[in-house]
Amino acid sequence: MDLRILWLVLLLIPAAQAADVPVEAASRFTESDPHLDPERAHRGYMGTVVCAECHQAEFDLWKGSDHDLAMTQATSETVLGNFDDVQIQAHGVTSRFFRRDGGYFVQTDGPDGQLRDYSIRYTFGWSPLQQYLIAFPGGRLQALGLAWDTRSPEQGGQRWFHLYPDPDPNAPMDHRNPLHWTGAEQTWNYQCADCHSTDLQKRYDPEQQVYDTRYAEINVACEACHGPGARHVDWARAQPAGENAETAAGTDAAGRGLLVDLKDRDGGLWQINPETGKPERSVIRSPQGGPHVQTETCARCHSRRGRIQDALTPTEPLHQGFRLALLDPAIYFPDGQIKDEVFVHGSFIQSRMYHQGVVCSDCHEPHRLELHAEGNAVCARCHTAARYDSTEHHHHEAGSTGAACVACHMPQRYYMVVDERADHSLRVPRPDLSLTLGTPNACNACHRDKDAAWAATAVETWYPDPAYRGSHFGEALHAADANAPDAAERLLALAADTTQPAIARASALDRLRNHADPTALMTVQRLLDDPQAQVRAQAVRFLDLADLQTRVELAWPLLSDPALTVRLEAARVLAPVMTQGVGGELADRLSAALEEYAIAEMVNADRPEAHLNLGLLAVEAGEPRVAEQAYRTALSLDRRFTPARVNLADLYRVLGRESEAEAELVAGLAAEPVTASERADLHYALGLVQVRSQRLDAALAELARAAELAPQNSRYAHVYAVALDGAGRTPEALSVLEAAQGQARTDRAILIALIQYNAKLGRADAAERWLDVLRARTPGDPALIQLEEQIKNLQDVGATESPASG
């Protein structure tokens, strides 16, 4: 077996993390920027000064923009915050901002909870807030959790504030919290750097666990979007001599040395269709080629995504370097509206405008980054004002908040406390969906004294055509989240519907994994050839639920898929083939695919999640020693990383090393994980260890604690109930199950246990009631026949034993 890259990982990963020692206040960088890459010219990066030699107008627009000011060295010209010996108290810590020896400092709690003085090295962002970066050992820069509100005093600004202002009694915001400013979640090198600087080279050394992060320019400069400009500069400087000038056609970007061409060169214009009164482009923008290069270029930063390739090639689609986040319930509402911070792209690709060919620069000036026009005027560049900017359309007083296009079609939410960001799915208000899905709507965002029913009635009165309230993909996603009986059917229909946004279809496949039925594979199989890479990737991922032969038949061809995201999923689901003794070309091809997967994970070698994924892959490929080392590395990066701890314990179980499994779980609890769900996972796994070692009393205590800490996890309640029943405490088991059923009303395992345990206690009526619930939920459930027979026998026994009347 040749898992070369996985064995290489063993050589690269260390046994323990270096000590976390804060930088002393006296330690100062030199005046030069230590992160500026002296080798940048070798990679073709020339810098904005060179670009401005010819493109002065664009340079002038960019200068002073949010891209220009994305990151700067901390100087009197760039620091906006008040450092005149001012204090702020947050989460029980009094922090002080002050100046000393020409530098900017903050006294605040460090990685051990003690107050220390820290030198501000860089500013980060400009409006509506500015953060500050502090140098730590190992090449790390940490983003301070206290930020400066740059808005005007009238807007509530010109103040210090904490980015996590709300206290959480279950997870205090102190140095032990993962979100504390000194923790890995606030490390610039991983979390923020590649979208605030040009040509960011993270340069993480996994052996030493240190960074040597460099950039070509400190901010988001010309070549961050246009790509390295050396060849273009050579072409431009050769023009006076006549070289290349005649051979480079006006539309031939490559002939002019441009790696990325973001302009429209087809002569197309947005115009009004006289028949529909709606805008359309005179030249249809193709889904392939130039126009979408612009959107995908912006999406590299303006999206919620994970990086999977170090060396990005300009013009390549997003899926060649990143995994785009799906419509996960934690970050999106079921109908695709933004919930957590998703940075625009995942919303925009849901919109009709995206699918009609609208690109970012249709609304935004790409260098100044401001809208092409103020207020409704930016929309009126394409949409006729007489039709849309009218009371007949918006039904609000002209000039009022409700008359603004964005108020209804791009509702905003606050992130980072003061940063109001618009939903770019550009949807019509759907208060009717609020009634059925519990989603927000633009109407009630303003009319907070009214309910969704009132808003739905108003919209229906204004727009009686039911087409405005048609079916929505959010109904299928919500059905899955609510464990509705028809969830699988709805998800399959959505996944197969090519008229729906690809991100919604892919999200349906992701949820389908928890609602699969025997017929699902037939539909999923067809989606392996879908034109959308995001859909193909999730279709491959679904094959986790198939047997190995089916995986090989369906996933093997996708090892050659053009999209990296698809190839990585194919490699992962095929990893168990390595345990089957394959050889020759088949083994070589699969080994190469697994290497590509491991390389993609090592892009984020500074994160425990990457090593967890490598460990899971090694387990599937039959390499337990590699898996053990990968899990150990994850824990060396974060000793409280519960997924690695639980999987390591499970690996020890498989290897028959039960005492080590138990020791790992005990150590995990001693590390004091922050969240209740993480502690629940450890208690649950520890309870199972004790069940296997026949220490039932101890196991019951651990399983009870798991169910208590994670009441939303019905599996924990079910297993605890099974253990209670095994201990002869069936009435208590029923109490646990009934409480769990209140939390998860459609959980099949809970319902079956309620039927069986009531029958066991001779409670035929109660068993019959729960059977009715299960029958209504899954009328075709194969377990129904056996359960019905069990209850019938119980009822027959009861009838036989009943005393004769009279």
Q: Explain this structure to me?
A:
The protein is of the alpha+beta class and 806 residues long. Helices cover 42% and strands 9% of the residues. It has 35 helices and 17 strands. The strands form five sheets. Strands 1, 2, 3, 4, 5, 6, 7, 8 and 9 form a nine-stranded antiparallel sheet that branches. Helix 33 (748-760) packs parallel to helix 35. The chain is globular. The chain starts with a helix and ends in a 5-residue tail after the last helix. Mean pLDDT is 92; it is low at 10-31 and 802-806.
How is the secondary structure organized here?
Blueprint (H helix, E strand, L loop, with lengths): L3 H9 L35 H4 L4 H7 L8 E3 L12 E5 L2 E8 L2 E7 L5 E10 L4 E7 L5 E3 L2 E4 L9 E4 L25 H4 L12 E2 L4 E2 L10 H5 L3 H9 L31 E3 L6 E3 L8 H10 L5 E3 L14 E3 L20 H4 L3 H4 L21 H4 L4 H4 L2 H4 L10 H5 L2 E4 L3 E4 L8 H7 L4 H5 L5 H11 L10 H9 L5 H10 L5 H11 L7 H8 L5 H10 L5 H8 L8 H11 L9 H19 L5 H13 L3 H14 L4 H13 L3 H13 L5 H17 L3 H14 L4 H13 L3 H14 L4 H13 L3 H14 L5 H19 L5
Antiparallel strand pairs: 1-5, 2-3, 3-4, 4-5, 5-6, 6-7, 6-8, 8-9, 10-11, 12-13, 14-15, 16-17
Helix pairs in contact: 14-16, 17-18, 17-19, 18-19, 18-20, 19-21, 20-21, 21-23, 22-23, 23-24, 25-26, 25-27, 26-27, 27-28, 27-29, 28-29, 29-30, 30-31, 31-32, 31-33, 32-33, 33-34, 33-35, 34-35
